[in-house]
Amino acid sequence: MMKRLSNMDYNQKRKRCGQYMEALEEERRKIHVFQRELPICLDLVTQAIETCKRELPEMATDNLYGQSECSEQTIEERRPLVLEQFLTINDSSISNEEEEDEEFDDEHGTHDPDYDYEDKNMKSDWLKSVQLWSQPDLLLPKEERLQPKLIETVVKIDESMRKDLIVNGAEGRKREAEKDGGRKQRRCWSSELHRRFLNALQHLGGPHVATPKQIRELMKVDGLTNDEVKSHLQKYRLHTRRPSQTIPNNGNSQTQHFVVVGGLWVPQSDYSTGKTTGGATTSSTTTTTGIYGAMAAPPPPQWPSHSNFRPSIIVEEGSESHSEEVLVRCSSPAMSSSTGNHYVKKN
DNA sequence: AGGTGAATAT
DNA sequence: GATATTCACC
């Protein structure tokens, strides 16, 4: 009897540990994205996982007497130790990234572990540039990410990242502005920034329903102002609606069935290419898009080459429409009205 | 707060 | 010269 009990107990513990490990690995996947910036962090989590794995089997013998313990402690101790450090530095951009990515990833629903992993891996691309908007002269030598091995280095990075954030963040801009005679310095919409913008747009139901404020909040970019978002949105809308019927529309001039994805125009190929398996997961976000769902404008023939608005904004090649996989939201004549080629001067 | 046109920087 | 971004106003 007792044996049975302890067995169950053990099994439970084991199970728990297993779950914990899963969580850890999940964590690792997330962090993997930051492998450049947080090499040590990644390393430590990895170590923790390994330790855990190592100890898990041992438990079989240990546990009978020692009970619990498992490697939880080990890990618990480690993680905070490491993560906390990073958490503090990630005050704005990084931590937000994670949050956001989580959110969005969840929505994609398609959870092919492998794909997921790769996807995240790709993201490390943009992460190479922690600064969301580039200010070349102020960029710090990011070259100090040569796989440091001592905690000291972590601190070093910590500092440089801080600077980065400050410099690129609101403060930096402010200073710049003053120096510049008052006029704000142009915000450079890096592809990453724009990606966030698009993501926010998706979540809000498209460029015509999303408001600058909402977008800004969703983007969670520190230092970004409503005005900036507003103007970007405006530009986006303008580009987006180009009625230049250069639409590969299969001659369905009457029933303009645009492929409107989350209010974002997306090449048919993209949306039909499936992989959107769980694509229709955007569910919740559907907000009231119903009516406006179709508002998304006709496909922008092509964004100016040097603009973020190119349909190919996605720097991460191969990731396909990774930021665009969304629900296909109908299409209807409604758009013609909301998309009116030219707004009539109201006044 | 959002939309728009003018002004201005790149 | 064209465009993107910011400003100023409704």
Any key phrases for this structure?
Myb_dom_plants, 347 residues, mainly alpha, nucleus, DNA binding, 54% helix, DNA-binding, two-stranded antiparallel ribbon, HHO5-like, transcription regulation
Structural class: mainly alpha
- Helix tally equals 13
Amount of beta strand: under 5%
Classify the helix fraction into a percent range: 40-55%
Give a count of the beta strands, DSSP E runs of length 2 or more. 2
Give a written overview of the molecule.
The protein is mainly alpha-helical and 347 residues long. The chain contains 13 helices and two strands; from the N terminus they run ααααααααααββααα. It has helices spanning 2-32, 39-66, 72-89, 93-108, 113-127, 151-168, 170-179, 191-204, 212-219, 226-241, 268-272, 289-292, 334-338; strands spanning 260-261, 264-265. A two-stranded antiparallel ribbon has the order 1-2. β1 and β2 (264-265) form a beta hairpin. The longest helix has 31 residues, at 2-32. The N and C termini lie far apart (86 Å). Mean pLDDT is 50; it is low at 59-181, 243-263, 265-307 and 310-347. It binds a DNA duplex (10 and 10 nucleotides) through residues 183-187, 189, 211-213, 226-228, 230-235, 304, 306-307, 343, 345-347. GO terms for molecular function: DNA binding; DNA-binding transcription factor activity. It is found in: Nucleus. Residues 92-113 are annotated as: Disordered.
Compact overview of the structure:
By secondary structure, this protein is an all-alpha fold.
